[in-house]
Design brief:
Blueprint (H helix, E strand, L loop, with lengths): L5 E5 L6 H14 L4 E5 L5 H10 L7 H17 L5 H6 L3 E5 L2 H8 L5 H7 L1 H6 L4 E6 L2 H11 L9 H17 L5 E5 L4 H18 L2
Parallel strand pairs: 1-3, 1-4, 2-3, 4-5
Helix pairs in contact: 1-10, 2-3, 5-6, 5-9, 8-9
The structure holds thymidine-5'-diphosphate.
Length: about 210
């Protein structure tokens, strides 16, 4: 039985997820909550392999890529060294930087979304986020931020691609109405975004007592 709450952060590259994750972790810890921060691709063996796709070191068919992210996700949930599910059962709250909506949004640029959703069906069955927080910025804004802050761009970091990824996020939110999703305007001030997120998360913590 799950006891901790599970929050997934989503957004196109450069959306400011990392900053908001730090701020939320801090607020939760101030409330003396036991929290753990993690990400996908995971830091496990399948996640490391998957990251080599992002850098272009491994090249393979788009369906294989989507399946690798799905395999990493299941391993991230279930492995008994640092798996998410055992931690939740221990009463630890988890904040995850990207979860299955990333797969729906990114891989559906190349393969049908229905197939990606089906490939991740087992993860969705095992663990649906108590809340998915989508930090929304336009593809143009994302490109400005990415080119300012980084020395290299990864596979998905092209404006037209990011535009499709953003569209796919909204298509997936529309398709999967049973999911709890908070969309926040990522162009607001950092403190404003953080306050909106806290407004949604605090009641979840209260109800979980
Ligand atoms: P990462 O370097 O972790 O950066 P970010 O801060 O943007 O999350 O990159 C993760 C990349 O992996 C990002 O471009 C989205 C992509 N991705 C997928 O394509 N499918 C997935 O299922 C996940 C979790 C991520």
């Amino acid at each position: 039985m799950k006891k901790g709450i599970f929050i997934a952060f989503e957004g196109i590259d450069g959306s400011g997820k990392s900053t908001q994750i730090q701020l939320l972790m801090k607020k939760m810890e101030e409330k003396a909550q036991r929290c753990y921060q993690t990400c996908e691709p995971s830091s496990g063996p399948i996640g490391s392999l998957t990251r080599q796709i992002l850098t272009g070191r491994i090249k393979t068919d788009n369906r294989v890529i989507a399946a690798m992210f799905a395999a990493d996700r299941l391993d991230h949930l279930l492995n008994d060294v640092d798996g998410v599910v055992p931690k939740l059962e221990d009463g630890i709250h988890i904040i995850c930087d990207r979860y299955y909506f990333s797969s729906y949004a990114y891989h559906s640029v190349d393969v049908p979304m229905e197939w990606v959703i089906k490939t991740n069906e087992e993860s969705a069955k095992i663990l649906r986020p108590d809340l998915t927080i989508f930090i929304d910025i336009s593809a143009g804004e994302a490109m400005d931020r990415i080119t300012k802050n980084r020395f290299h761009t990864e596979l998905f970091e092209k404006e037209s691609r990011l535009q499709k990824v953003r569209d796919n996020y909204f298509k997936a939110f529309e398709l999967l109405k049973e999911e709890k999703v908070l969309v926040v305007d990522g162009t607001l001030k950092s403190e404003e975004i953080s306050a909106l997120i806290w407004q949604a998360v605090e009641p979840l913590l209260e109800n979980n007592k």
